[in-house]
């Protein structure tokens, strides 16, 4: 029998111990603490060094908004100029990752399906995708420097400065620590876009239109582009919403990866609303005379204002992609090493070195393809069409599809849906590569854009 003293001690002990709820959370010192499992996860919260898994679902909303509303939104109005005004794979990817928590990126997920060879091939595609996206952000940053300085220096030098700034930001080790700069960057890009949206409604004619005489606006509800122009525009729009592969390394750094839907669904609604409303306004007032990127559509003064406001966002956007490429390579190199989550000199020199390496490759890419839309379209066709359409459909067939083989009509319908997604992805790959390559060739061959030089970089943006 317990004595009164023992009972009092038991009550006192219960009073000071954390109270756990059914979800595994506990209240300690007035703070709700999430006890997330390390089972199978890439990053271990109990590693004793760097804790990568610090992203809450609230911060995930901020991160995903900045990932989605990045440089791609600046190219959508001009894509509408080709296509006209009317033209849940992310959840599939994340659910697959959560069923296989050792997967850090889509590369590991493809390795589950296809083994080592498939993993290496997709790994190469993953790096190319993020280098191209970082290159587009780097190019956008150099365009901003040109606009603000009235082409005060060689574009190559501006690109070099942009690369340094991007590498400095991308070298932050965890997505959690990158959140506050992302918040400021999101506000900046929205401010820059709103400046243009308001500006195009106040000018007599778009900045790229003829300065004198009548001109055709060229606003079409349904456009009639050539195949090359149409598929390039479609690839440009597609990449602006195909961020599922970018989500995965961020989800791997969540405290509780199963909370991702609390962020993904509101982000989808917000991004869709922003893309549709703001892009349509710019296209309605500018028609075919849309600058690329679109921040230059309302004249020189508004262009400077818009780029001045949006400049931090351009740097941060490119930094996110450079960070993702470096983080993938870092995990592949050090995952089973004692330096993986330890503050050792090997850890730091490798991490900084990878960021510099991929930043330099993005700089080379931006110099080789100095047309903003074409970099995005090429990344969309070559990399993001497979990773955001084809691979999720194949993952469903691999992981869930067998359960639907005996599900009657519902099973046939689900299989038909994912086969259709696979076919659309294949078309985007083949057609997008051809269309973008043809568009790049035409740009280089045209008399207006025959050369890309330091002396005249106006061919980079109109």
From TrEMBL:
Location(s), subcellular: Membrane
Keyword list, A-Z: Membrane, Transmembrane, Transmembrane helix
Primary location group: membrane
Membrane topology: Multi-pass membrane protein
Pfam families named among the record's database cross-references: Aa_trans (PF01490)
Family to which the UniProt record says this protein belongs: Belongs to the amino acid/polyamine transporter 2 family.
Protein name: Amino acid transporter transmembrane domain-containing protein
Top-level taxonomy: Eukaryota, Fungi, Dikarya, Ascomycota, Pezizomycotina
């Amino acid at each position: 029998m317990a004595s009164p003293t023992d009972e009092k001690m038991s009550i006192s002990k219960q009073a000071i111990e954390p109270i756990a709820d059914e979800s595994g959370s506990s209240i300690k010192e007035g703070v709700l603490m999430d006890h997330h499992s390390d089972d199978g996860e890439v990053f271990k919260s109990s590693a004793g060094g760097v804790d990568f898994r610090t992203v809450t679902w609230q911060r995930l909303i901020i991160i995903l908004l900045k990932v989605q509303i990045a440089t791609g939104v600046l190219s959508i109005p001009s894509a509408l100029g080709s296509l006209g005004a009317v033209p849940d794979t992310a959840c599939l990817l994340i659910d697959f990752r959560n069923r296989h928590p050792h997967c850090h990126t889509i590369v590991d997920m493809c390795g589950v399906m296809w083994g080592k060879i498939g993993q290496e091939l997709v790994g190469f595609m993953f790096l190319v995708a993020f280098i191209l996206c970082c290159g587009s952000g780097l190019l956008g940053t150099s365009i901003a420097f040109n606009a603000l300085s009235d082409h005060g220096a060689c574009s190559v030098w501006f690109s070099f400065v942009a690369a340094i700034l991007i590498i400095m930001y991308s070298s932050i080790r965890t997505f959690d620590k990158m959140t506050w700069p992302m918040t400021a960057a999101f506000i900046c890009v929205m401010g820059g876009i709103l400046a243009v949206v308001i500006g195009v409604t106040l000018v007599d004619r778009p900045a790229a239109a003829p300065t004198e005489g009548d001109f055709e606006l060229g606003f079409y509800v349904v456009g009639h582009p050539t195949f090359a122009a149409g598929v390039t525009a479609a690839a440009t729009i597609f990449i602006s919403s195909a961020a599922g592969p970018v989500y995965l390394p961020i989800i791997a750094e969540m405290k509780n990866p199963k909370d991702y839907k609390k962020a993904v669904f509101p982000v989808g609604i917000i991004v869709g609303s922003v893309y549709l409303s703001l892009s349509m306004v710019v296209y309605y007032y500018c028609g075919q005379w849309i600058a690329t990127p679109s921040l230059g559509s309302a004249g020189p003064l508004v262009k400077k204002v818009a780029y001045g406001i949006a400049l931090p966002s351009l740097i941060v956007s490119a930094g996110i992609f450079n960070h993702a490429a470096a983080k993938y390579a870092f995990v592949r190199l050090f995952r089973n090493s004692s330096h993986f989550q330890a503050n050792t000199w090997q850890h730091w020199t490798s991490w900084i070195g990878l960021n510099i390496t991929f930043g330099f490759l993005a700089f080379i890419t931006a110099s080789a393809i100095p047309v903003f839309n074409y970099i995005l379209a090429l990344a969309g066709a070559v990399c993001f069409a497979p990773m955001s359409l084809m691979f999720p459909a194949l993952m469903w067939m691999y992981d869930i599809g067998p359960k639907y083989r005996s599900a009657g009509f519902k099973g046939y319908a689900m299989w038909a849906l994912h086969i259709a997604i696979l076919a659309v992805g294949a078309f985007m790959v083949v057609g997008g590569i051809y269309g973008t390559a043809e568009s790049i060739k035409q740009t280089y061959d045209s008399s207006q854009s025959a050369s890309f030089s330091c002396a005249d970089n106006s061919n980079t943006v109109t």
